[in-house]
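Ticket reopened. Same input as before:
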Amino acid sequence: MEDLVSAVISLYLLSTACYLAYLFFQKDALHHFGYYILFAGLLCHSAIIIAVFVQTGAMPVRNLFETLSLAAWAVAVVFLAVRHRFKLKILGIFAAPAALSLMVVASQLPRHTGPVKDIFSSFWFVLHVVSVFVGDAAFALACGAGILYLVQERAIKNKSRGFFFRRLPSLERLDAAGYTCIVVGFTFLTAGLIAGFIYAKSVWGRFWSWDPKEVWSAVTWLVYAALLHERLTVGWRGRRAAIFSIIAFAVLLFTFFGVNFLLKGHHGEFTRF
Amino acid sequence: MIPKTPDTIPEILLVGLNHETAPVELRECMALSETDTEKGLQDLGQVPDIREAMLLSTCNRVEILTVTGNPDAAARHVKAFLSSFGGIAPSVLDAVLYTHRGDAAVRHVFRVAASLDSMMVGEPQILGQMKEAYRMATIKKTTGVILNRLLHRAFFVAKRVRSETGIGDHAVSISYAAIELAKKIFETLEGKKVLLIGAGEMAEIAVEHLVRNRSGAIFVANRTFQRGLELARKFKGQAVRFEEIDGLLPVADIIISSTGSPDMVIRRDQVKGVIRSRKNRPLFFIDIAVPRDIDPSINQLPNTYVYDIDDLKGITEENMADRLREAAKGERIVDEAVAAFRRWYESLEVVPTVVALRSKIERIVYAEIEKTLSGWGGTTDVQRQALYRMADAMVNKILHDPTLYLKDLARYDAKAVTLDITRKLFNLDEK
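Engineering reply: fixed in the latest deploy. New output:
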C-alpha cells in the first residue's frame, strides 16, 4: 500500500515536471510524457482506491488521508478527460501539481481509520462521494482555466506580450474550456447533492437538517448556478466569468475544508486526522 | 547546349545585385520579366565559357548563377549582359554588383534560398521565386549536373532552416501581426465577421489574410460609397454607408479602421452601449490609421481589445529581433551544407571515385572471405594467402574496365554525370 502511494507520488511528480518543462521549452514530447505519466499514476492510484474498497467494502473517505487522496484522483481523472476532449494541454500545469500536492499532503497524514459503518457502502453514499469529488475537480480546473484566462487577457490588453503570451492558447479557447468545466462540475455537483439528500433521508430520516456542510454546499451550488445563469442569459464570459469562477472555487474550498475544520458538522469524520 | 570546353573541373560563379548593394531605381531597371529571363538564358547559353546558367530576378535582387571553366571571361559576359539589358553603364553597374566564386557562391545560393539574405529575413516567397527560376532554366536546358545538384541542395537547406529554426515563426508585417493577435483572442477566425472602415494597403492586406483564414461576412464602410462598393466587390463583401457603422457594432468581431479622418471614427460610448447586446463576445479593433480612428480608451472596456499601428509596429520589431536571433542558427545549417556540397564537388574528380569504388569492393570481398574462413577451421596460412590472391585478382579484373572508362572520359559534362551515377550506383557516399 505504502509502496503504491510512493509510486503514485513519484509519477505525479514526474508528470508535474514534464508539464512545467513543457511550459518553458514548448517541446511537444514533454506534454505527451506528462500526459502518459499522469495516466500511469492514475492507474496506480485507482488500484489503491479499489483495493481499500474491496478490502473493507467502504468508500475510502474514512479519514483526511483517504479524502485528499480521492480528491487528487478526481483531479487527475477530470484533467485527463478535459485534455482528451479539448486538447488543452496547458491545464496540466495546474492539474498535475494539484494532484501531486494533494497526494503529498495526504501521505504525511496518519492512516488509522475510525470504525467503518456499513452505511459507507450504500449506493447513494458512493454516488454522492464520487459525483461531488468529480464535480469539485472540474471546478478546480475551471479555476485554473480562469487564472490562465486572466493572465492571457492581461497580456493582450496591456500589449505586454511576455513569457505567457506565446505559451497560452487563445482567450476563446480558455473561456470555452472553463465554461465546459463549470457545466460538467455543476452537473456532477447537482447529482452528488441529490444523492446526498437521498442518503440523508435514508440514514437520518430527513433530506435537510441545516447542518453547516449542507448550508455551505447549497451556497456553493447557488454561486455556480448564478455564474451559469448569467452566462446563458446576458453572456457573462471572458474576464468576468474567469474572476467569478476563481471566487466560486474559493467558496467551494471553504465548503470542502473550511466547514469541516472551523464549523464542524456531520461531515467531520471524513477529514479526521 | 553547344559543346563547351572540356576537361577541367569548372567553377561556380555568381554575379548579382540586391537590396543592400543597389538602390531601388537601379533594381527597377534590372527587373526581368519572364520573357526577359527566357531570352537571357538563351543568350547566356550561347556563350562558350558558360556551361550552365540560371537567372533569378525578384524585386529585391537580380542574380545570375553560372558554372564556367573560365570564371573571368564568364564574369565579363554576365556583366556585359546585365549592362546591356538594364541600359546601365558598366561603371555604374560595377559599383553595385557582387561576384562570388566557389564555396562563397554556394553559400550565397543557400543563404538566399533559406531567406537569410532577404530584406525581410525569413520571408517565404524567395524560395518559390528561386524554384521558378530553376524551373525556367531546366526548361531552357541551361542547367547541368552541378546546378541541378546545387539547387536541389539549396531547396533542401531552405526547408531545413525553416523547420529547424524559428526564422519564419512570427509575423514581421503589420497586417500579419494583427492576424496573429486576432488568433490569440479568437481561437479561429472562421466565420468571424469583419468590418473594414476606410481603405489603405495595409488594411486591405489584413482583410485578405482574414479571408484566407475563412472569416465570415465582410462589411466595407467608406466615406465615398462608390469606393466602398469597389472594395466590397474585391472581398466579396457588402458595402455599407458610413452612418451604418453604429448598426454593425453589435455584429462585427473584428474591425479594421484605416481612414484619413482627423477625428475619432468610433468613440468609447458607442462601443460601451453595445457590449450587452453583443453578449460580451470579444471585439477586436485594429486601428491602422494615423491619426487614430479608434478611441484608445475603448481598450479598457471588457472583452474589447484595441491595437493601433504603433502597438503593431512594436510587435513586428520584437518579432524581427527574434528572427535575426534564429537566423544565426540558420547560418550554421548553411555552413554544414556548404561543406557537404564541397565534398560532393570534389568527388567529381575521377581519382577519388575510383579509389572509393575499389575500397568498397575490397571491403566486401575481404569481409566475405573472413566469414567463410571462420566457418571452416583448420586452414593453413598458405591456403588463406591463395584465397586472398584470388580475390585481389578478381577485384582487379572486375574494376579494370570501369576504371579505364572513367579515366578516359574527356568531356566534362559526361564525366560529371557518369561520376555522379557511379557514386550513386555503388552508394559510395554512404556515411
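Chain A touches chain B through 19 residues (CB under 8 Å). Chain A has two domains: 1-114, 122-273. Please confirm and we'll close it.
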